[in-house]
Amino acid sequence: MAAWCLQQPNDADGQARPAATAIVQFSPASRQAAPALTGHLLDNSAFRLAEWRGSVVVINFWASWCAPCGDEAPDLQAVAEATAGLGVRVLGVNVNDDRDAARKFVDSYRLTYPSLFDPAGEIPLTFPAISPRTLPNTVVLDQAGNVAAVAQRKVTRTELEATVRALAVTE
């Protein structure tokens, strides 16, 4: 499973090299509707993304065995807390994982936002804007439910918070 986890690329000397900006933003005219996302959260309660329409939504695809997913978890939690007053919602999607391991991950990072449980890894396949075979991935939806931004690597609090604040304030 860990082969799916996107690691920092190395240069010829084996040293980690800085990655390009993680978040790719789409103009309002080029945004596509997000798929109708439904499922069960880690606590087994039902979830429907349509109920969050009208909010900017951050969807983060992660797994407990993915080291970069753990690296970015505190930043995602910080963004969730810092932007809640703007109506921003954060949703995790736990893929190709074991429910107990996923719950331990959530507890260890003290994540307060909900996470869908997707043990078969089917949900990422419904989002054409991301690579379903790498983790982590983050998709940001505008208030109309369209894909406004995508990150196909670990995000930082600074870049993600700037993206979601701009969407929450201007849209």
Automatic annotation (TrEMBL):
Q: Does the keyword Disulfide bond apply?
A: yes
Any single Pfam family the record assigns to this protein: AhpC-TSA
Q: Which InterPro entries match?
A: AhpC/TSA, Thioredoxin-like_sf, Thioredoxin_CS, Thioredoxin_domain, Thioredoxin_ResA/DsbE_sf
SUPFAM superfamilies, alphabetically?
Answer: Thioredoxin-like
Q: What is its main location?
A: other
Domain Thioredoxin: residue ranges: 28-169
Q: Which UniProt keywords apply?
A: Cytochrome c-type biogenesis, Disulfide bond, Redox-active center, Signal-anchor, Transmembrane
Record carries keyword Disulfide bond: yes
**From which domain of life does this come?**
Bacteria
Q: Which CDD domains match?
A: TlpA_like_family
* Cellular location(s): Cell envelope
Name of the molecule in the record: Thioredoxin domain-containing protein
* Taxonomic path: Bacteria, Bacillati, Actinomycetota, Actinomycetes, Micromonosporales
